[in-house]
C-alpha cells in the first residue's frame, strides 16, 4: 500500500513573498516533492521554458481545459489566464509524491474545494507596514496601482481562517524551515494516514 | 497578547524508545520548551535529583494530590504512583512556554481528556519484530514478563486513532527531527492561533 502524497498549497496576499520562499524551498525538498507547473496564456518571457516555468497555451486551448474540468484552479489576471492542470496533480499524488503549488489566494480557495485534504499555508508579511514597503520596493507601482494592491492585500488577511497554517515571512530561511516542518508534520498526521496504519496493524496480527 | 504554549505529549507502547527520543530531543528545543517533571512515590535511584528527575512524594502526599485534582494524569505501576502535576503544566503554558511530557499511553489519554488541545504523538517501533528484540535486549525479562510486555505493546497499537501524530522510531535522529517538525508546525496552526491572528488583523486596521 502506497502512502498518498500531500498537496501543499503556499499562498497569501500579494507582497508576502510567495515566489521568494518557494524558490528558496525547492533545493531543500526531496525528490519525492514536485513543484506543480501552471498553464498560462501569456507570452513566454526570455529564458522561460515550456513545461518547466509554464505550459504555454492559446486562449482557446485554455478555455477548452476549463470546460473539460481539467483546471484545478484558474484565474484571469490582466487579460491572461493562469491555472493548475488537474491531471498532473492527481497522477503525481497517487504515485505517493507530494505536489507543491504556489498560487494566489483566489486559486488556493478553489483548490480547497476540489481537494479538501490539501494543506493550505498562508504566508504573511511580518506587518502591514512591511507589506507596504515591499510593494513600493518593486518600483513599478503608480499611486493608483499601489493603493489597489495594498488594499487587496490587507483585505485578503481576513481569509486566514480558511487556511491550515500561517507562516510569517520575516526571514526567508525561517519561513522555509517552517514550511518544511509543516510538510513533515502533515506526513506524520494520524488523520491523514489512518487507513495506512490500520493496514500495518492488520499485518502485525 | 501572549501566544499560549503547546502541551506536547510523547507516548507510545513500551519498547518504542520514548525515553531515548526524549533525551535526544531536549538539547534541540529552545528555552521556550520545558520538560515536565513527574511526581513519584518510588525511592530515588542513585544520582536522581528532587525536582529534576522527579518530585519524590510519600504515598499519602500523592493520594492527597489526586484527591485535590492536582494530577493531570497518574498511574500505579508495580505498587508505586507516578503522575504529572497539573499546576506546573498550567502555569507554564499560560506564560507562553511549551510543556513536553513523556508518559505511558494510559496517562496520555487521560491528558487528552483534561487538555483537549494538547498534541499527542504516538511513537512506534519500526515493526513488531523490532519491538520484540528491543524488549529482549533489556535483558531483564523472564519469559512471563516478556509475554506480558509484548502482548500489552501489540495491544496498545490500536489506540493510534486517538493520537494526532505517529512517529516511527527507526532512527533516533530522524524521530527527533519529526517531533521537532510537529512542534513547529503546530505553533503555525491556524486553528490553534485564530484568536491571536484576529487580534493582529484588528491592530492592522
TrEMBL record, chains A, B:
Uppermost EC category: transferase
Gene3D superfamilies in UniProt: Guanylate Kinase phosphate binding domain, P-loop containing nucleotide triphosphate hydrolases
Assigned keywords, A-Z: ATP-binding, Cytoplasm, Kinase, Nucleotide-binding, Transferase
Annotated positions binding ATP: 12-19
Catalysed transformations (reactions): GMP + ATP = GDP + ADP
InterPro entries in the cross-refs: GK/Ca_channel_bsu (IPR008145), Guanylate_kin-like_dom (IPR008144), Guanylate_kinase (IPR017665), Guanylate_kinase_CS (IPR020590), P-loop_NTPase (IPR027417)
EC number(s) reported in the record: 2.7.4.8
Residues of the Guanylate kinase-like domain: 5-184
Location of this chain's protein in the cell: Cytoplasm
Molecular function GO terms recorded: GMP kinase activity
A UniProt-annotated Pfam family: Guanylate_kin
Family: Belongs to the guanylate kinase family.
NCBIfam families reported in the protein's UniProt record: guanyl_kin
Biological role: Essential for recycling GMP and indirectly, cGMP.
HAMAP family noted in UniProt: Guanylate_kinase
Protein name, UniProt field: Guanylate kinase
Organism classification: Bacteria, Bacillati, Bacillota, Bacilli, Bacillales
Amino acid at each position: 500500500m502506497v502512502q498518498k502524497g500531500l498537496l501543499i498549497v503556499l499562498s497569501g496576499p500579494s507582497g508576502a513573498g510567495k515566489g521568494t520562499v518557494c524558490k528558496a524551498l525547492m533545493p531543500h525538498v526531496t525528490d519525492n516533492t514536485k513543484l506543480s507547473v501552471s498553464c498560462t496564456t501569456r507570452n513566454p518571457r526570455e529564458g522561460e521554458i515550456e513545461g518547466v516555468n509554464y505550459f504555454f497555451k492559446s486562449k482557446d486551448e485554455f478555455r477548452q481545459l476549463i470546460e473539460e474540468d481539467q483546471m484545478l484552479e484558474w484565474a484571469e489576471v490582466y487579460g491572461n489566464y493562469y491555472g493548475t492542470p488537474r491531471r498532473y496533480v492527481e497522477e503525481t499524488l497517487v504515485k505517493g509524491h507530494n505536489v507543491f503549488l504556489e498560487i494566489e489566494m483566489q486559486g488556493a480557495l478553489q483548490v480547497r474545494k476540489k481537494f479538501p485534504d490539501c494543506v493550505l499555508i498562508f504566508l504573511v508579511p511580518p506587518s502591514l507596514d512591511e507589506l507596504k514597503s515591499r510593494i513600493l520596493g518593486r518600483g513599478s507601482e503608480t499611486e493608483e496601482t499601489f493603493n489597489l494592491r495594498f488594499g487587496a492585500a490587507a483585505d485578503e488577511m481576513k481569509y486566514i481562517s480558511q487556511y491550515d497554517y500561517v507562516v510569517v515571512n520575516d526571514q526567508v530561511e525561517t519561513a522555509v524551515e517552517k514550511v518544511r516542518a509543516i510538510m513533515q508534520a502533515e506526513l506524520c498526521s494520524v488523520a491523514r494516514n489512518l487507513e495506512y496504519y490500520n493496514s500495518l496493524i492488520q499485518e502485525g496480527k
